[in-house]
Design brief:
about 350 residues, mainly beta, seven-stranded antiparallel beta sheet
Length: about 350
């Protein structure tokens, strides 16, 4: 019991002694006789809601399929993917990529359970269709603008691990003429071994057969260790990269094979300037990297032999080391067996 004539009430923050600074953060102050609802919702957890459902996927036998979901709600959000109602071991991210598919996978149904401290919600079912044919590489000049929901393309960013905006996360946008892969500065976004396999990639399914692809980039790496090129991969950590980079003084052509913790460099040679046009030709285990400054006259940079089971091809942009941000601008990506005319006329 304490007698006092009250004139004011409120909240305070302070420090006893000459100690470290402190910021007291007040969420709300309410009269219990006339309480308010906390309008920013920070006073209680919000159950998850799925804002983008997983889509059905169709792949050729031997290809992988990726399912993804976008959810909102109080963090942290937990994800558990299921196949035909059964939890998939270690499938606890916002996306799930299957192993190489077989005919028996046809018709499998995938769902994702998203949960947090306030509740859980199951996604709609997405069906996997596995065909007996081969995956044909798509020719695309991104005009009109392709969208990420197009099942042919898969945007893979190793930094994108939650439904929110993760530190280091890159972005994919389309402007009606180009695909743009924007890579933020200050963090490693390279294609190399182990944790350095962090560059974002725009990928599509490809059969494990002979092929030839061509890409034209309108962007030019001009700051130390910016890089861009064509990628051919078996998995996200097993791939061939055919690219160009700038070391701060000179432009270079580069080719390497990476398999987890191991890497083999097949070509690393300076070039007078960054060529806009690149080609990769596969014949069995033999690979050829070609480049052109005008799209007419081509030069073979290197031919080498490397065995690999191909599942996807595409393009990437990146930064080696914690250097300046870079946006790789891809004008087109074409299958040489079914080439397209660049409809925006930029070549």
């Amino acid at each position: 019991t304490q007698s006092m004539t009250v004139t004011e009430v409120g909240a305070f923050a302070g420090i006893s002694g000459q100690n470290a600074a402190f910021t007291g953060t007040l969420d709300y102050f309410t009269n219990l006789a006339a309480p308010i609802v906390d309008s920013d919702g920070s006073g209680q957890a919000t159950a998850p809601t799925i804002t983008t459902q997983p889509a059905n996927r169709t792949v050729a036998a031997g290809q992988t399929a990726t399912f993804s979901v976008v959810a909102s709600g109080s963090t942290p959000l937990a994800y558990q993917w299921r196949r035909n109602g059964t939890n998939i071991a270690n499938a606890t991210g916002a996306s799930y990529t299957t192993p190489a598919t077989v005919a028996a996978d046809n018709g499998a149904v995938f769902t994702c359970l998203v949960s947090n401290s306030a509740g859980s919600v199951a996604s709609n079912a997405a069906t996997l269709t596995v065909t007996s044919g081969t995956a044909t590489i798509l020719s695309d000049d991104f005009n009109p603008a392709t969208t990420e929901s197009n099942p042919t393309w898969r945007f893979y960013d190793p930094y994108d691990t939650t439904s929110g905006n993760d530190p280091g996360q890159s972005s994919l946008t389309f402007n009606g003429a180009n695909a743009l892969i924007a890579v933020p500065g200050g963090l490693e976004h390279d294609l190399w071994t182990n944790a350095s396999t962090s560059a974002p990639r725009l990928l599509q399914p490809a059969s494990n057969t002979d092929f030839g692809v061509e890409a034209k980039f309108e962007s030019v790496p001009a700051v130390r260790y910016q890089e861009q090129g064509i990628i051919v991969q078996a998995t996200n950590t097993n791939f061939l990269r055919f690219d160009t980079y700038f070391d701060g003084n000179s432009s270079w052509l580069f080719v390497a094979y990476v398999n987890g913790t191991n890497a083999t460099t097949y070509y690393n040679t300076p070039v007078s300037r960054i060529p806009a046009y690149r080609r990769v030709i596969r014949s069995g285990a033999q690979w050829t990297y070609r480049y052109s400054f005008d799209g007419v006259a081509w030069t073979d940079a290197v031919t080498f032999t490397q065995s690999m089971t191909v599942t996807e091809v595409g393009a990437f942009a990146g930064i080696s080391g914690q250097n300046a941000a870079f946006t790789g601008t891809l004008d087109y990506f074409t299958n040489l067996a079914a080439p397209i005319v660049d409809s925006d006329g930029s070549n």
